[in-house]
Amino acid sequence: MKRLLSIEFQKIQKNRASKVLVITYFVLLSLISLIASLKFNIGSIEINIAEQGIFNFPYIWHFNTYIASGFKIFLAVVIVSMMANEYTYGTLKQNLIDGLSKKEFILSKFYVVVTFAATSTLFVFVMSVLLGYSFSSYTELPIVFSDLDYLLAYFLKLVAFFSFCLFLGILVKRSAFALGFLAVWAIIESIVYGFLKFTVLNGSRQTENFADTIIQFFPLEAMSNLIKEPFSRLSAIKSIEAAIGGSQSVKIYNAQFSEILIVIGWIIVFILTSFYILKKRDL
User: Fold this and answer.
1) Which 3 state secondary structure label does DSSP give 40?
2) What domain range is 70 assigned to?
3) Which of 56, 104, 226, 245 could form a disulfide with 153 if both were Cys (CB 3.0 to 4.6 A apart)?
4) End-to-end CA distance of the chain
5) Low-confidence ranges of the chain (pLDDT < 50)
6) Number of structural domains in the chain
């Protein structure tokens, strides 16, 4: 594993664009802390974002992982470009000539995916601890370390997304086309959901439940379900919903076991399919 990772990170180190994207990604993650300094006025009332409880333990685990997951596209570009460069510069063929098996080649890419996801998760953990102890009203250890399952969900979400990008990079060989296909796939999932929800049974509650059941098995939606939006958990939002007579139904925010299994299933599918394509393709 160490040898394979060393080979891959040497390639990334020699690619200036990849280094810039990786650095940009972690700089942007750091900027989450700037949310604490945001203030704005509504009439004569000054609202400080940090005082709304977004950095309170354990809510901070949910909030930070949700926001941080929005920046994953930067590392996704690195992974797609990394794969495209293998074809463009012939390093894939050279690695195979030098004795690297196709299985080891796929494993080396997957190790990079897991390393990126683990490093990002550790970064978010450290940043959340620092922000939490700086702004949280609750710093008792049982509270601080509750809801850490959001970090596991974040890690799995990144591994799945990066594995999808790796698969696309192997499938189409060109980074621009791979990223374009990723965008098209996101649109396809939205169209399928809309069709199921509004066309099949004219948008009834029964249809909505049916659409939610089906769409949860699609890859991007499955990843999204691991970390649901955190904003409706804020007391201010709940007060507004209550004032306007919004829905009072109980929403489950934590990732469910079935949702985790679906994402793990997609990770396995992406990696095995990537290996199959590479094994059958004439290089």
Assistant:
1) strand
2) 2-39+47-229+256-280
3) 226
4) 24
5) none
6) 1
